[in-house]
Design brief:
It contains 11 helices and 7 strands. The protein has one domain: Alpha/Beta hydrolase fold, catalytic domain (Rossmann fold), CATH 3.40.50.
């Protein structure tokens, strides 16, 4: 967990949830911008990820990860927070807001996965052992190829290399353990959808969407017809913002899955504007 120092503190706390192939560190530009704006920033590496412990037999569920985060905040004496979440973190943030609505002042989700239920849209169930065998083959070249096509809309800059090295380094350190944990986390993501409960959210929400994103968990296991219908983020964002009772949408037409990394200045400007608007409601 990284807790950024406050600069002319505004008394507000924001908790950052990372994605499946990310760490808290991938929020670094947003952490700096939020801290400069006076927020207390808490960036958590969830259990099984990055700097946190990695128990092989942990029962991964979004409920459990949400409960862990709530316990951490309680220990820090923090009651109400804004949540900023990316990718898989959006599924976790949704679950957190459903479990603890009175403790969430605003839900800000950046290209959250889980805007569709993949198992209902043509992705077959994928056994953990199948995920495990796939993840054993992961290497830096494959990571870069996927990130370029999905995270950055086909573009690449040298400053993206660090995030390839971050993920590849974890597998290099312990390939078997990393592949097994990755497989169990993929199983959690695929089998614990949150989209069906968007209508039940009781907190104000903002969606920040890079429209060039095409992420869909398990897409590679689906047939060609199903794959063509998955991961349409422009469409999914419009549906989601109409389903969540109190939601707004910020679209980045030229950006991919990681707008906070691909264009941090543009993203942070939109983020701080949204936070000001949310703050004015309290």
């Amino acid at each position: 967990m990284d807790v950024a120092p406050r600069n002319e503190a505004n008394g507000k706390t924001i908790v950052l949830f990372h994605g499946k192939n990310f760490c808290a560190a991938t929020w670094r530009d947003s952490i700096a911008a939020l801290s400069e704006a006076g927020y207390r920033v808490i960036a958590v590496d969830q259990i099984g990820f990055c700097k946190s412990s990695k128990p092989l037999n942990y029962q991964f569920s979004f409920h459990q990860l949400a409960a862990n985060t709530r316990a951490l905040l309680a220990d820090l004496g923090i009651d109400q927070v804004y949540i900023l979440a990316h990718s898989m973190g959006g599924m976790l943030a949704t679950r957190y807001a459903l479990l603890y609505p009175d403790r969430v002042k605003g839900l800000l989700m950046v290209n959250p996965i889980g805007l569709e239920d993949w198992l209902q849209k043509g992705v077959p169930y994928i056994a953990i052992d199948t995920w495990y065998q796939q993840q054993l083959k992961l290497n830096a070249e494959a990571i870069k190829r996927y990130q370029q096509s999905t995270y950055y809309a086909g573009q690449w800059r040298d400053d993206y290399d660090i995030w390839v090295e971050m993920l590849a380094g974890q597998f290099a350190a312990d390939r078997d353990k990393s592949a097994w944990l990755s497989a169990r986390i993929y199983d959690m993501i695929l089998t614990q959808p949150v989209v069906h409960q968007f209508k039940d959210l009781q907190v104000p929400a903002w969606l920040f969407i890079g429209a060039q994103d095409n992420t869909a968990v398990g897409k590679g296991f689906a047939d060609e017809a199903a794959r063509a219908e998955l991961g349409n983020y422009r469409e999914l964002a419009a549906i989601s913002v109409s389903t969540i009772p109190d939601a707004r949408l910020q679209l980045f037409p030229e950006l991919g899955h990681s707008p906070h990394i691909q264009s941090p200045e543009l993203f942070n400007q939109a983020l701080l504007k949204a936070l000001r608007q949310l703050s004015s409601r309290h």
